[in-house]
Amino acid sequence: MIKKTILTPKQFNITLHRLVCQILENHLELSELALVGLQPRGIYLAERIASMMRENYKVDNFSLGHLDITFFRDDFRRNENPLQANQTKIDFVVEGKQLVIIDDVLYTGRSVNSALAAIQAFGRPRQIELLTLIDRRFSRHLPIQPNYRGRQVDAFLNESVLVKWKENDGEDGVYVIDKTIK
Q1: What's the whole-model pTM score?
Q2: Phi and psi, residue 149, nearest 5°
Q3: How many angstroms separate the CA atoms of 16 and 75, rounded?
Q4: Residue 62 CA to its chain's centroid (Å)
Q5: What pLDDT, on the 0 to 100 scale, is given for residue 180?
Q6: How far apart are CA 154 and CA 52, in angstroms?
Q7: Are strands 2-7 and 173-178 parallel, antiparallel or unpaired?
Q8: Which segments constitute the Phosphoribosyltransferase domain (predicted)?
Q9: Confidence band, pLDDT 50/70/90 cuts, at residue 81
Q10: Contact, 15 vs 7, CB < 8 A?
Q11: What is the pLDDT of residue 157?
Q12: Which residues of 146-167 are buried (b: 16+ CB within 10 A; e: fewer)?
């Protein structure tokens, strides 16, 4: 297995700061803004962005939630093992909000499609945008593109993108792993 570094911890942090600045630049009325991290790993990115907005830019009049898309996935019944659902935590009114759906890696677009279906159960937002740390741009199955992207990565089908989070993995970093080479 070969592991190629895409973002070092320092680059990771700089990228997150840039994404936060882009959100703040595009959303002047923060009381209408809601950040929604997709379970399981998009929540780390959403939480980190929310924390940076509060600590570095002294804004906290936005909403933050977590969305589980397990039962909205189009491959839900195709797995031999039952899928483990995560917790959805949306304790704000979605109706009329400007939502930013947040996930760590945009690959085929199917997770985002599932998120769009799932969020409809909570109401009708005024606008939905997509933020992703890593955009695997040549792997899309659906016509979905991010409004905010940290880095574009061109990875072959035999490669996977691994995002490590300090909160869960003990380090921040992004790697491309070639699964064919032992």
Answers
A1: 0.92
A2: -135, 140
A3: 31
A4: 17
A5: 79
A6: 28
A7: antiparallel
A8: 6-153
A9: low
A10: yes
A11: 80
A12: bebbbeebebeeebbbbbbbee
Q: Which two tokens stand for residue 50?
A: 């929310």
172 has pLDDT over 80: yes
pLDDT of residue 76: 52
Whole-number Cα distances in Å, 95 to 14, 48, 62, 131:
33, 24, 14, 20
Decide if 53 contacts 61 (C-beta within 8 A): no
> Which residue type is seen at 21?
C
Fold of 9-74+87-159: Rossmann fold (3.40.50)
Please list, in sequence order, all residues whose beta carbon lies within 8 angstroms of the beta carbon of residue 107, skipping any fewer than 6 positions away.
136, 139, 140, 161
Q: With bands split at pLDDT 50, 70 and 90, how would you rate the model's confidence at 75?
A: low
CA angle 143, 148, 151 (to 5 degrees): 90
Compute the Cα dihedral for 107, 109, 115, 116 and give only its sign: positive
